[in-house]
Amino acid sequence: MPQLNPNPWLSIMIMSWLTFSLILQPKVLSLTSPNTPTNKESSTTKNNPWTWPWS
């Protein structure tokens, strides 16, 4: 069964992860979002008591 032979696939996997970790990941992480998050002003809601018609 050729799937169990790790000779070519192990080295391909290691090289692809090294490429991702060392080259692609810093490039992706350096990108910034065009919309910077802003803090929303907290507004308090006024709670009115409920008047029950049968009380």
From TrEMBL:
Q: Molecular function terms in GO for this entry?
A: proton transmembrane transporter activity
| InterPro entries in alphabetical order | ATP8_metazoa, ATPase_protein_8
Keyword Membrane assigned: yes
Residues annotated as region Disordered?
A: 33-55
Stated membrane topology is: Single-pass membrane protein
A single Pfam family it belongs to is ATP-synt_8
List the signal peptide residues.
1-30
Which superkingdom?
Answer: Eukaryota
One GO cellular component term noted in the UniProt record for this chain: proton-transporting ATP synthase complex
Which keywords does this chain's UniProt record carry?
ATP synthesis, CF(0), Hydrogen ion transport, Ion transport, Membrane, Mitochondrion, Signal, Transmembrane, Transmembrane helix, Transport
Localization recorded for this chain is: Mitochondrion membrane
Q: Name one GO biological process term.
A: proton motive force-driven ATP synthesis
Question: Hey, which family's this protein in?
Answer: Belongs to the ATPase protein 8 family.
**What protein does this entry describe?**
ATP synthase complex subunit 8
